[in-house]
Amino acid sequence: MKDLIDLVQIVTRPKLRSIELIGDGHNGKSKLSIFYDKIVDGQFLDDDAAAQALYQANKQSPMYKKLKKNLKDRLINALFLIDVKLASYTDRQKAYYECYKDWAAAKILFGKNAYGVALNIATKLLKITRKYEFTELTVDICHSLRLYHGTIDGDYSKYELYNQELKENETIWILENRAEEYYIDLSIGTIHSKASKADFQTKAKGYHAALEEALQTYNTYHLHLYGRLIESYIHSSVNDQPRILDVCNRAIAFFNEKEYVAAVPLQVFNYQKAVCQAQLHQFPEAIQTLDQCMQYVSKGHFNWYKAQELILIVHLHQGEYDQGSILLQSVLSSENYKNLPDHIKESWRIADAYLSALKKMNKLKSTTNGIPTLDKFKLSKFLNEMPLYSKDKQGLNLHILILEMLFYLIDKDHGKLQARAEAIDKYRIRYLRNEGLKRSNYLFKLFLAIPKAQFDKTEILQRTQADFQLLCATPIALSKQTLEVEILPYETLWSFVLELMELWQGERLRSKSRK
Q: Who is most buried in 220, 242, 257, 276, counting CB within 10 A?
């Protein structure tokens, strides 16, 4: 069902009506049309529900499987007929879709020996692929033109021309593929883990050195996109923010010089630049950079959610909790949220949990801003909905444990915190002793001192004085942890915890005096 949900988001009702691939049946709407409409409306989220509603059968029903295949085939065919020249697309994006559509047609025509029209399409396309640096497509087109002129019409000069261009672009394509491979090898481990990757620096340096000569020789889009990302990884693996900023600024300048709008690199490097600025507490600058980044991001796309996540972190670090709650509402109510990858949803569940905690601690000046999840938050449900990040022991699992301890204090479940303290301390000793997680280690020690001090604020302050000073002496900007590890500044979070202890102690004293 997931593939159909993805397809109906691209082949929308207006586009489908314009090409009339799914028509009505003789007695009203066809089953195919009903199936499509209910997927669009979100009524069919899995195959079992769809099969039951349409055929009173399970998803293994031959009739349902045939209907599903038919719809999928028609939607895929529709991709080649819909207009891809959306206003939101850049010139390069429009060219990409048009080129691949036209080249698919040309390949079919070459196969059918319709050489005249195929050659016309191919030679026109080649001018576009050169301009926009579609290296792989240029290789494929030159290969077909070399084959035609070398074996069909015997034009030696044209054979030589396309053979030479093929070889030159083949060399570049191999380098671009190598750069992409190196970048993937470095980045794949960061998808489900936000732990520090200092041990990757040596590998990143080696990969960048292997590409350095190519980067100085060729100025192509993909080579420099991946090459400069690898260069930034050398420094991001140890959180060297000033050097990352330098890489980002040089990359942005490089891609701004292109004769087309290089949307993806400009989006990527502006986003990375904003992360650096936020980590350096340059919050106004980070927001300005994110404004630049958002010029190249469409609402509801994967990268839109990543940019919103960073904006939320900036709001929370500046104490703008109401703005953060408004942003959370915008994200959770967005049309594509339910289709996001699980690890992105888990990031937003963490954000929801922090804002729920802030609301319970009366840190939101206004109401919930229409966010029912803030009132309905249940710690047990949250803990059960984090299967991926609960495995990220030196990354975002830290939030899960911090929020668990925080909600025990908010809800005055002191016994539960007391019962969990030993296990959490063992976790701290095992996972939080490396240099990159100093701040998290100090925060855990602060929390774990609370039950040892019998929840008495005066004794808590005495027990935690040294660790709090060490925490303050290691500011975020100088730490080696990733920005996502600290959604709410630890110093601020600790001040809220002390307020909770003071309130609880006051309630306990008033209760004693009444007795």
A: 276
CA distances from 32 to 3, 17, 101, 469, 504 (A): 16, 14, 26, 66, 61
Contacts of 503 (CB under 8 A, 6+ apart): none
Taking phi over 0 as left and psi of -120 to 50 as alpha, with beta for the rest, 336 belongs to alpha
For residue 17, give the H/E element and its range.
helix 13-19
Q: What are phi and psi of 25, to 5 degrees?
A: -80, -175
Packing angle of the helix pair 135-151, 115-132 (nearest 10 deg): 150
For residue 336, CA distances in Å to 31, 40, 298, 333 come to 25, 11, 12, 9
The answer to whether the CB of 90 falls within 8 A of the CB of 82 is no
Q: How far is residue 326's CA from residue 315's CA, in Å, rounded to a whole number?
A: 11
- Whole-prediction pTM: 0.77
Write the pLDDT tens digit of every residue in 302-345.
889 999 999 999 999 999 999 999 999 999 988 888 888 888 88
- Listing DSSP states for 407-429 in one string gives HHHHTT-HHHHHHHHHHHHHHHH
